[in-house]
């Protein structure tokens, strides 16, 4: 019951607190106030428009994303691998259900990397964890979509394990740990987006599972290269995703779901 309530609260909070949505709301509120000759309207207008100007004219999205993506460097070699864990978030189960064709989003590297690792490590188990993380779930889970995608790429059989109940990162960690029950000394790779890795590692550590981070889906280049290359719409999404991760780190630490405020290697 508590988990269901927290899940609902988190979704409703982010629905209204998304930086781009909130900034647009502030700008509209300020403009309406100024039209009504309320001088206080200039402040929400400046704050709202200021967010979009900052994203457009400064490398703000890369600045706030880079610390997340660089927190856990990817190992030069995988070495011995007993299993690979792929976190959900890369598939679109509702779109797949409506169109009848497996759909991926911008985090698709999580799914393709699983196939690569499966071929490099034929002895390793491949575990996908993802259920229905939306307020209006459909009939399919993320795990259902993952099964379709991987089967089409030749990755199937008893070595592929699907966890289909997790709705967030904390449940990814706890439910997968309970399902797999890893043994001491086993080496498991954790595959997720680089900016999502700090919170993910913190959750798995709190669940009692010391995994090896294997980040993918980078969106920044070190040294300032190409920070202004992506279109404005991409940088808006990049900045919003980074802020979501920082909020998630704070909330998860407050709830005792991570091992540290900003987990480190």
Automatic annotation (TrEMBL):
Sections of the chain in a coiled coil: none
This protein's record includes keyword S-adenosyl-L-methionine: no
Domain DUF218: residue ranges: 82-248
Key words of the record: Membrane, Transmembrane, Transmembrane helix
Positions of transmembrane segments: 12-36, 43-64
InterPro entries named in the record: Cell_Envelope_Assoc, DUF218, Rossmann-like_a/b/a_fold
Protein name listed in UniProt: YdcF family protein
Annotated organism of origin: Sediminicoccus rosea
């Amino acid at each position: 019951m508590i988990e269901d309530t927290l899940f609902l609260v988190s979704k409703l909070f982010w629905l209204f607190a998304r930086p781009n949505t909130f900034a647009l709301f502030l700008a509209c509120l300020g403009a309406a106030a100024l039209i009504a000759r309320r001088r206080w309207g200039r402040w929400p207008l400046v704050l709202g428009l200021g967010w979009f100007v900052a994203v457009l004219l400064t490398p703000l999205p890369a600045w706030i994303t880079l610390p997340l993506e660089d927190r856990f460097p990817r190992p030069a070699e995988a070495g011995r691998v007993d299993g690979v864990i792929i976190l959900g978030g890369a598939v679109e189960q509702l779109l797949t259900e409506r169109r009848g064709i497996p759909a991926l989003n911008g985090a698709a590297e999580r799914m393709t990397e699983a196939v690569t690792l499966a071929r490099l490590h034929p002895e390793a188990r491949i575990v996908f964890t993802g259920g229905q993380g939306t307020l209006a779930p459909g009939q399919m889970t993320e795990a259902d979509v993952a099964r379709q995608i991987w089967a089409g790429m030749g990755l199937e059989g008893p070595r592929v394990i699907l966890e289909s109940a997790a709705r967030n990162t904390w449940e990814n960690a706890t439910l997968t740990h309970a399902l797999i029950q890893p043994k001491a000394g086993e080496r498991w790779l954790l595959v997720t987006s680089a900016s999502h890795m700090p919170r993910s590692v913190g959750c798995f550590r709190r669940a009692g599972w010391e995994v090896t981070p294997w980040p993918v889906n980078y969106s920044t280049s070190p040294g300032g290269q190409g920070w202004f290359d992506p279109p404005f719409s991409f940088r808006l999404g990049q900045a919003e995703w980074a802020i979501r991760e920082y909020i998630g780190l704070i909330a998860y630490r407050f709830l005792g779901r991570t091992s540290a405020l900003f987990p480190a290697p």
